[in-house]
Amino acid sequence: MLSTHSYKYALVDCNTFYASCEKVFRPDLKHRPVIVLSNNDGCVVAMSREAKALGIPRGIPLFKVGQYIQKYDISVFSSNYTLYHDLSRRVMDILRTFAVEIEIYSVDEAFLILKGEKHDDYADLIRRTVMSWTGIPVSVGIAPTKTLAKAANRVAKKSPLGYCDMSGSDRNEFLSSLEVGDIWGIGRQYKAFLNKKGIHNALQLTQQSDSWVKKNLTMVGLRTKWELEGRPSIDMEMTPPPKKGILSSKSFSYPVTEYIDLREAAADYGTTASEKLRKQGSVCRYVNISVSTNYFRKEENQYSNAATVELSVPSSYPPDIIRAAQKGLDKIFRKGFKYKKITVYLTGIEEEKRGQLDLFVREDPRKYEIMKSVDSVNKKYGRNTVNCMSKRKMSSWQMKREKLSPRYTTSWKDIPVVKS
After folding, report:
1. Which of 3, 248, 365, 375 could form a disulfide with 273 if both were Cys (CB 3.0 to 4.6 A apart)?
2. Cα separation, 211 vs 208, whole angstroms
3. H or E element: which one contains 159?
4. Per-residue pLDDT for 269 more than 50?
């Protein structure tokens, strides 16, 4: 970890990211409201600023916004994760050129450590560069700590400049305007507790003693207090810690009754989970699979069950995961039910090089070399460009995405053509 006394933190956040991605290759949508839907086109999960201004609540089912769509000529899109993740990668690659260190916090956010004095000029250059090279608008919050940078970014989003540097500002005035519920790391329960104690803003929180904060908000809360005081206390995470459990799960768009559909879905979700496993350099020992019907349909017969299969050798190789998932499915599948959901969950996760071998099982080292090539191709050209399974075109389990935009940056057939 760098000594950050002469550095400043910046939080760069992509504005209305999913909606902005949909607008990049559609100039005609520049000033039009755009909404993006959840899996199976169920609910509104993202909106452009124009759509937010119409008062559409996030999470509302699509069928309830039909009148808005028609009245305000709203463009509606299914979630295009391939496009979003590729544009996210491009944004993060640009941010790396500006940072001493970078922590990718989410698909649309990153913490940077900046060096130098003219941070306003730096923030403006970051915004202009990302917009020019990717078409994605970003906001930049700059401060002495990560927690303050997160708060500064909230101000930046509302500023016409698109950035906020609170390094030299009146911190007490800033903290008094920051509600405790808007502080990074303060959840609903802590907000309710603090409000009950008469603590409603960040300044009031910093006025409490360290011992009181530690007793009531734990050490995590104490670090938050120090951060609000301008003392860096939360380290940058250049590499996210490996997950102890990896889950791949989706609800079906239509009721699934056939075993072949569930078997295909188990293979697909097992493949996705194994990709996540390899990405963090891990292997797993156990594959858990579960199925369930739709409990909201009381008139239908209900059923749910799960099975766990232990691998003979810890693995992240898709065929190993798929075989185990399908073996578990064989145990729990029952005819006569309308299945709504299937989940593949990997546990017993270890570092790849530390997997305990079975004396009676011979591993073929070539399979991991193959997967390196497969992962490389999929990373460059989009998920499932190369995979370990075949899908029937009319499978009823596949996600409903009737309003899916092209994969402009990862598919040759979808590359935009500029006509003179």
Report:
1. 248
2. 8
3. none
4. yes
Cα 322 from Cα 268, distance rounded (Å): 8
CA atoms within 13 A on the CB side of 44: 26
Confidence of residue 332 (pLDDT cuts 50, 70, 90): very high
Supply the pTM of this predicted model: 0.77
Question: Under the phi-then-psi rule, with left for phi > 0, alpha for psi from -120 to 50, and beta for the rest, what region is 190?
Answer: alpha
- Per residue in 183-200, pLDDT (tens digit) is 998 999 999 999 999 999
Decide: helix, strand or coil at residue 339. strand
Closest CA to 155 of 145, 165, 144, 167: 165
12-26 residue pLDDT tens: 999 999 999 999 999
- Which single residue is written with the structure tokens 């916004």? 65
**Helices (H), ranges, 135-287:** 146-158, 171-176, 188-196, 202-206, 210-228, 259-279
Record the tokens describing residue 333, joined without a space. Answer: 């599948």
| Integer angstrom CA distances of residue 195 from 151, 154, 156, 200 | 19, 21, 26, 5
Q: How far apart are CA 339 and CA 297, in angstroms?
A: 11
**Residue 60 confidence (pLDDT):** 92
The count of residues in the chain is 420
Whether 356 shows a pLDDT value over 60: the answer reads no
Q: Does residue 364 have a pLDDT over 80?
A: no
Residue 118 vs residue 328, higher pLDDT:
328
CA 13/CA 155 separation, integer angstroms? 12
Q: Which helix (H) or strand (E) holds 282?
A: strand 282-293
CB-count exposure of residue 261 (10 Å: 0-12, 13-18, 19+): buried
Give yes or no for residue 309 having a pLDDT over 60.
Answer: yes
What pLDDT score was predicted for residue 281?
Answer: 86
Average pLDDT, the chain: 87
Give me the phi and psi of 30, to 5 degrees please: -50, -45
The token duo for 111 is 């913490």
- In angstroms, the CA 400 to CA 381 distance is 22
φ/ψ of 19, rounded to 5, equals -65, -40
Asked if pLDDT for residue 4 goes beyond 50, the answer is no
Distance in angstroms (rounded) separating the CA atoms of residues 206 and 224 = 9
Strands 34-37 and 44-47 turn out to be: antiparallel
DSSP 81-143: HHHHHHHHHHHHHHHHTT-SEEEEEETTEEEEEEESS-HHHHHHHHHHHHHHHH---EEEEEE
